[in-house]
Amino acid sequence: MITFEDVTKFYPGQERAALRNINLEIGRGEFVFLVGQSGSGKTTFIRLILREYRPTKGTLYVAGKNLSTMNQWKVPALRRQIGTVFQDFRLLPGKTVYENVAFALQVIGRPAREIRRIVPETLDLVGLTGKADRPSEELSGGEQQRVAIARAFVNRPKILIADEPTGNLDPETSVGIMKLLDRINKADTTVIMATHDSSIVDQMRRRVLELRQGELVRDQAKGVYGTA
Amino acid sequence: MRHSLRETWSGLKRNLAMTIAVIVTMGVSLSLLGAGLLTSMEVDLAKRSLYDKIEISVFLCTEQTQGGRCEAGKGTTDAQREQIQQTLEANPEVSEVVYESKQAAFEEFQRVFKDSPVVASRTAEDMQDSFRVRLANPENYAGVVSEAEGLQGVQNVQDLHTVLEPMFTWLGALQWATITMSALLLLAASLQIANTIRMAAFTRRREIGIMRLVGASNLYILLPFLLESLVAGLVGIILAAVALTAGYWFVIVQNAATSITALPWIGWGDLVTAILAIAAVGIALSIVPTLLATRKYLRI
């Protein structure tokens, strides 16, 4: 699903590479934790997959497409296959739960009838049954993150990227979010989650990629947060 | 599409004051530009028509004339006259040389002033023989004039260019001043559009961020902004078109064309050309700043 071939990324005007010589492959339906300190390159890793940047060197394949040579105008089509969730939820204030999720479908031109069918389905899936008409900013943090996940997943992407999705949540709420991501993963969605939350990583026992100063220092199946 | 139209409408409403400012600036600057274009068309038309009609008149000496290349008390001799005619005809700039005798000039004089008391005070002997010289290209008169002035037996060379030239110079300057002013105003209008759209994009940056993230196409994201500036631009264009048409109607159709029939006047076709030109400029100046202002938010 995602293949890094000797990928290096330099930001303009910086001496040190944000990512250096990354080689790895993430298969379809895998669940991968991306760990490492702030500044280790996790965000760059994610932004490369989203094609917000191109690799400086090397080749990156996502969903069968070579992102290094991909045309600018094909980027939206790529992003429709990737759902993204952030630590700060990034919901639209002033819109209800339903509107926030429907927005993701409206702006890619999906027909209204389809939207009316899929959105409630997805809200049920993420555990927000009955909250469709609530203003999104009135919800708790955990519920807001569920809305964000519903928005990321409503178009049934092949890949779900979660950048510190539990970073703003208390441990109990985080467990609920992880269960949800696990369920999405079981529906054959590749999930890549960047996190600092060691207890989650240790509990889930999934593949762990550890970045340190832009280099991949560990790629461990059923790994834990700290170096084993 | 419905989303785009709704966003356009709400954008226009949200920035109502700026939208009105854009429309007014656009309308005024395009009117000025259109007026400049029409003036320039009229000046060209008048210049061509007047210059085409202009002949150079080369007056010959009589016994009474003084100055020029006349010998005191003597008229131009037949040999001199022959020489003058040959020299003029040999000049490549000259297309035609017509001789007008005293007698013919007197008849013309009588015809023109037939109701006036001056008719009785002149005889054919008061008139001068002359050559009427037509030019191949009326713009290139200076060489012919100076050549004719140097010929023996030529008393005076009359040339309307020297009268008309300063007038056209001033008209040209006026028309350039109008176009320059309109260019400055158009610059202001396009900066205003860029600024309005930049502000609108900034207020919607969260939405735009999410649209990009979920894979909305650039056109989809851009459309509300493009439509917003196009609507403002189009209203400005319509205002300018109405102003130009009204101006054309009152100044030229109603007044100038009826009172000054000697000159040709620009027609409705020229007005349409000018309106199309300002429409093209107006549309370009709405779209380009919008694209530039939103570029930052659309960079992938």
TrEMBL record, chain A:
Q: What is its main location?
A: membrane
InterPro entries, sorted: AAA+_ATPase, ABC_transporter-like_ATP-bd, ABC_transporter-like_CS, ABC_transpr_LolD-like, Cell_div_FtsE, P-loop_NTPase, Sigma_54_int_dom_ATP-bd_1
Asked if the record carries the keyword Cell cycle, the reply is: yes
Q: Does the keyword tRNA-binding apply?
A: no
Alphabetical UniProt keywords = ATP-binding, Cell cycle, Cell division, Cell membrane, Membrane, Nucleotide-binding
Q: An example of a Gene Ontology BP annotation on this entry?
A: cell division
Query: Got a GO cellular component term for this one?
Result: plasma membrane
Q: Which family does it belong to?
A: Belongs to the ABC transporter superfamily.
Q: How does it assemble?
A: Homodimer. Forms a membrane-associated complex with FtsX.
* Free-text function comment from the UniProt entry: Part of the ABC transporter FtsEX involved in cellular division. Has ATPase activity.
Q: Which PANTHER family match?
A: CELL DIVISION ATP-BINDING PROTEIN FTSE, IMPORT ATP-BINDING PROTEIN
The name under which this protein is listed is Cell division ATP-binding protein FtsE
Q: Which organism is it from?
A: Tessaracoccus lapidicaptus
